[in-house]
Write a structure and sequence with these properties.
By secondary structure, the chain is mostly helical. It is built from 5 helices and no strands. Helix 2 packs across helix 4 and helix 3 crosses helix 4. The termini are far apart.
């Protein structure tokens, strides 16, 4: 995951939804590195990467991490601002 975009987050999220949080350990590690740089809680990152944790716990941590990162990748367009108003 060299560049974090909404599209890459959505793609990884779709893959995790279809096959579980263990679908791509390398992508999760890259996501964690990006999230750590962005200031996401280290506890969330540890849980997301902990292969001994229950999958539902890891999935919830993944959701929280991607939610935090999606805020950073969001750039409103005129259309979304008009809808919000």
């Amino acid at each position: 995951m060299s560049t974090l975009t909404r599209s890459t987050l959505q793609t990884l999220g779709q893959r995790v939804a279809e096959a579980g949080v263990d679908v791509d350990p390398a992508a999760l590690t890259a996501l964690a590195a990006t999230a750590e740089t962005a200031g996401v809680s280290p506890v969330l990152l540890e849980v997301m990467l902990d292969e001994t944790a229950p999958s539902n716990v890891r999935l919830r941590a993944f959701e929280r991490v991607t939610c935090a990162l999606s805020r950073l990748t969001y750039s409103p367009t005129r259309a979304t601002v008009a809808i919000a108003a």
